[in-house]
Amino acid sequence: MSLTPTARCCGLAAAAALLIAGPAPAEPLPEADAIAEAVTPLVSPHDSRDYRVLTLENGLTALLVSDPDADKAAASMNVSVGSAQDPEDLAGLAHLLEHMLFLGTEPFPEADAYQGYISRHGGTHNAFVSTLDTNYFFDIDPEFLEGALDRFSQFFVSPLFNADQLESERNIVHSEYMARIRDDARRENDVLNQLLNPENPTTGFSVGSRETLADRPEGEPSLRERVIDFYQRHYDANVMHLTLVAPQPLDELESLVAERFAVIADRGLSAPRITEPLVLDDTLPQRVALQSVRDSRQLRLLFPVPDPIAEYRHKPADLIAHLLGHEGDGSLLAVLREAGWADGLSAGISRGDGHHALFSVNVSLTPAGAEARDAIEATLFAAIEQLREGGLEAWRYDEKASLAEQEFRFQQHGAPRQEAMRLSMNLSRFPVEDVQYAAYRMDGFVPERSEAYLDALTPDNLIRLYSAPDVESDETSPWFHAPWVEDRGEDRGEDRADGEHGGERGEARALTGLALPEPNPYIAEDLALRDTQDERPQRLVEEPAFDLWHMADATFNTPKVEWRFSLQHPDAASSARDAALARLLAGWLDDSLNEAFYPARLAGQHFEAYAHARGITLSFSGWRDRQERMMVRVLEQLQTGHMDEASIERVRYRLQREWRNAPQAALHRQAGRTLAEALVRPQWPSAALLEASRELTADDLRDYRDALMAELRLEAMAVGNLAADEAESLGRRVAEALAPTLEASAIPDLTPLRADADLPSLTPHTSREESVVLRYLQGPDRSLASQARLAVLGQLIDTPFYQRLRTEEQLGYVVNAGYSPMLDAPGLALLVQSPETDSAAIDARIDVFLDDFETTLAALDDETLAPYRQAVHDRLTQRDTSLAGRAGRLWQAMSFGDTEFDRRERLAERALAVDADELRELWPSLREAAVARVAFDPGDEPDDVLALAQHLEPLPD
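RESULT FIELD:
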């Protein structure tokens, strides 16, 4: 059992009676009396933001981050209570409580008071429950932070636990469970929980369902009373950690926190400690196989170890994970890839509960690897033995520590909401001085501690999980119904690969060829910051077949550069076969350089090739220093690299696996993909790409490469800490190597199509067992005015649609509405995914909502509309929070023809000018003239979407 501190509160019945109408809010403390301590954490030398950590008198810890450049304010409250604290008879109670806190408080009793306020003022909100934590978070336009905190803080002071909403939220929790019941990761976790110690509270069912959250038997406290009791037993200021990230000064943020959060109850609690072992020694070793839903074969090798979080200053397990998870020459993955057994591998800590954890090695298998899992296990133990004999060396630790320090020195901060979430969780786990530094901190190599973790990686201390679609068994896991069985292994000496030697298990033999990595040759040395800053990209080269854009950028205080090279060809995606070949070529280029470039990735240099409708893009991201070395190597490989059959087959298998698994994807995502297949040209369905790929040969790929290299157009962009002359020199060298010949007019554009009355309802190709409706109201044209009107309408319709169809009518867990453009073609998407309500009934509910929304529009005035217009404006002009994000935005703008790089600003200004009369005038045509529909019910046959949409004409400009 979990050793949970006893709360200083009334008994269950008395507590429930006290809270029937919600607790009376405490009187606010004077601001000065509310704060017990204020300190400052360690931060990067290039971090110019101001920090302050407060400890309030009630025990709550708050981290304040004042960022004058932030265009959003964000908050995150991490409560150190999660599903591990669920009572044995109410699995999912922590999750249900999280839902209930959103549904009204004493000062703001309306169920949508919080959500509506956030949405009206350009914000977003959500929450999640994990085994150890519950995290609530939002962002909003900064001038409305005070009002948002007024509402948010009351979750933890005076929630109503609205009795009228309890049944609907239980239904929504159940819908969430049903939406994820075919998720392979959850199925695997469900099986793993059967192998772990049932007394460890992290092994329970965390989501909840109607069954586990059923009404209590007569004579027992009601479900609502149990929710209230859980809140009082576990929610307390001492286990809460709040982070604010906002442009306001620290003193102002401090006042906002002290006035609102100092009144949270201090019940004298502390974070629950889990002492029960995660694994019982006498149950090991264990090897089991389970059935996956997706066409995917995975092997996980898990070893019980102490949770290393308490040793974060030295990270003794990280060096082991680094060496076993290495992908360079001689690595475990390289040897398995060479044998044709694996196409991916990772290693690290999982399932940490503060005291216990699992060291995990995860291998993505090929079909041949699935038949050699005993030999793969033997090869892993050979790699572990190699580490024992000489891998745990101080220089390797020091190299890793140096790279971590380099990343911390030039740390880029994410969006305020992501920052707030990350920091609030760190605040609950690490000393306040290390909330920013903990992930990077490596104070020195302690060999005996690393050796202690290595000593745990033995055959007798192993849990092995194999998952594949062809595993069969009558025994199923209790909550996600995954068939599972003891895994007796597949290979017993036959079909040995050359170069194997004796291994640990039976006759299985480990592969040879393992080698430890050499010193990393890609570590950047020139980290000097250039102070040149451009307002927007400038065209450095304008030639018939080659354009080069450049923007010097020093705003992120990092000597990094983002490069993009688009190699374009007229027939890159003219057929499903050509589109499949483009993906195969990009995949082969990445795969063939994997071993060579893995050290570069460790050193902060990243390369990716990806296919698109115009060809393939080569993307380079990382330190300015030594980036050219990677570019030269990539061009050599692209133009003349040997295309061996094994590498091509490995990539083809990976792509085909992705396309075969497309029908298993989340149903709402499949609905969106089906809509795009109908309304954007060219766009090829996964089934067409899969079919086209079946007959492709190595010669076909070589011919495709030759055709692309012989006749292409090149567009390039560099954004980052790089001078114009350096960018032009390097860009011209790439162009000289590729020798482009085609003008822009030779390359076809992606074209959004107009939905018309002859477009029937579309049925996606899916194997899901739920229903979905996606109603798409398309704008009349692609003009800036239409985009602005639809964007404002999307902001206006978001919260009422969610409130009506999800919260009140309980149609399902996935319910949303909002602006959803196809390229630059505007539209509104209204989506409901339901485990129980069929598409016809969903359609009827959507129609009623739209009728009522028309009444709302009829009464709308410009004063009421103003905050929605402003929210659209602020979202469109939201600042970039990373160099990669800025480069991606500018690259996309250029691909859409926005070579002035001001389209979003013009659209934002146009949104501010939208008035209520414009929306009323637009609404009838949206509902009647340009509606596309995607719908599915279990058993429906998929449509040939391309055939049904082939008559559609381009949407006019």
